[in-house]
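Q: Is it fine to ask for two folds in a single conversation?
A: Yes, each is treated on its own. Send the first.
Q: Here.
A: Result:
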Amino acid sequence: MTTPTTEIIGILGGMGPAATADFYAKLVATTPGSSDQDHLRTVIWSDPTIPDRTEALLGDGPDPTPWLLDGSRVLRQAGATVIAIPCNTAHAFVPRIEEHVGLPIVHMIGEAARHLSTMSPRIHTAGLLATTGTVRAGLYQEWLDRFGIRLVLPEGASQDREVMTAIRAVKAGTGDDTTTALLVRAAQRLTEQGAQAVIAGCTEIPLGLPAEAVDVPVIDPALVLAQALVRRATTEGSTPQDE
């Protein structure tokens, strides 16, 4: 760690547990240092009882907002100074909780959009692999519009049969070569629509889609979020990220 920090990262997780563990591993791997003491202090609240975010957005399940708010408060009480949510779909509910949490929330989707805007050569069109909830909520569309990046999406059959089937398999712990093949096929359909990069817009997708299996860059928002947290914690005078 190049600069002493008082930051304590609060990870609001459990959506799902494997994605939370993967995110923490990425945070550790991204942090510069040569000893235990160089790493960031972190509090993890992994609550797999949080209702399904996609089901809530589609009107088929309970609102997860109370669980997200309670988890944020647990993190604050445990000493967290900033919150990260390694779940793309959960960001649809951030506007409902951010004023009540009392801590800044580093917005994973916003950070991913900024990252895309800085890539060279310039990205004009990006493809999105995400839950149906994230797609329907327009979370990436809203942010990419700010940076003048066009978004292409899987068509209906691909979204359900390939993307959602693969996400469910990873969550169930049954992901295998078939899961990877589904995601590779879905990514290829996006590149055929002109995508110059593919956003792995569900934290389960990087667990089933090797970046080298796609002909264009695969953007992992969880990794981008980890990098943003490290920058925030290791830069003197850092300010909260846009929410």
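Q: Second one now.
A: Result:
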Amino acid sequence: MDRTVLLVGTRKGLWIGTSDEARVDWEFTGPHFDMEEVYSCMVDTRGDQPRLLAGASSSWLGPQVRHSDDLGATWAETPNGAIRFPESTGATLERVWQLVPGAEPGVVYAGTEPGAVFRSTDGGETFALEQALWDHPHRPQWNAGFGGQAFHTVLPHPTDPQSVTAALSTGGVYQTNDGGASWEPRNQGIRAEFLPEGQQYPEFGQCVHKVTRHPARPERMYLQNHGGVYRSDDHGASWQSIADGLPADFGFPIVVHPHEPDTVYVFPIGGGDRRYPPDAKARVWRSRDAGETWEELAAGLPDGFFVAVMRDAMCADGHERAGLYFGARNGAVWGSADEGDTWRQIVSDLPDVMCVRAAAI
């Protein structure tokens, strides 16, 4: 693996960066899908050649999942946008918030707004609704947060195709272990701080911002909540706080190291109306012991940083010496080629960054 590809989805298109394994000098092309919102993107490295997928939304044509098999030189549109709700649901697709590969060849999952999960078996060209989740009795009570009601996280089990974990804003974490025939909430121990005292640990209704895990230890999961950072060691059956030692427990992204299940990264920001980092200093925080202790990563990162990093705007690549990346709402993307020890700005002046995805190819 001697090349790196970085996808940057923004409110006004997609940019594609490429570099060598050193990840110092970058070349970017874009905007792809000019003036379309790109809330989700994916680099699929499972085949003979990488496939890029992007969930873009045009104010004129609506949402569309596009794919490219030549690193963005050309893009193919898919029938009817690839993802559409069946007429029987009475729902209309607004955005595609998540695109992620499944455990089986050709399987891709998508999380959408309104809150639903779709599954593809042909590499993301067509998708089918996970009907049992859509019909879940809790769904009428899933409210819309400030960002809308959406399944923003889908985590297929790395070795068990029957198991998928998904999370939505103001609904919490749900999981199937029977191939989508049934789904159950997995929120025990996650606090909903916005609810009255005595009601802050409901069965569902938490505002979960992001969930991640490492494929080598899938029973361990990490979660960034609307107020709270958590770890589960039993596949989401219960959660415990790991926020002690962080400057704030509010944030959007949480990323696990691609080779170390106990190493996890967060980007804390202030709660309430203060959607920028504590003291307005851009800082990534890393734990190497599954959240027992945390260290601040600051080398190369700016002060005077009055913007947020969104839930899918932080990621890692797959190089042996892992690279980390985050994009901010000021249109800048920062990268580290040494697991977060040092950082440098690799592109600036893009539109509002909504998602970043990186891969070694």
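Q: Anything structural to flag on that second result?
A: Two points. Residues 3-360 form a domain with the Methylamine Dehydrogenase; Chain H fold (CATH 2.130.10.10). The first strand starts at residue 3 and ends at 10.
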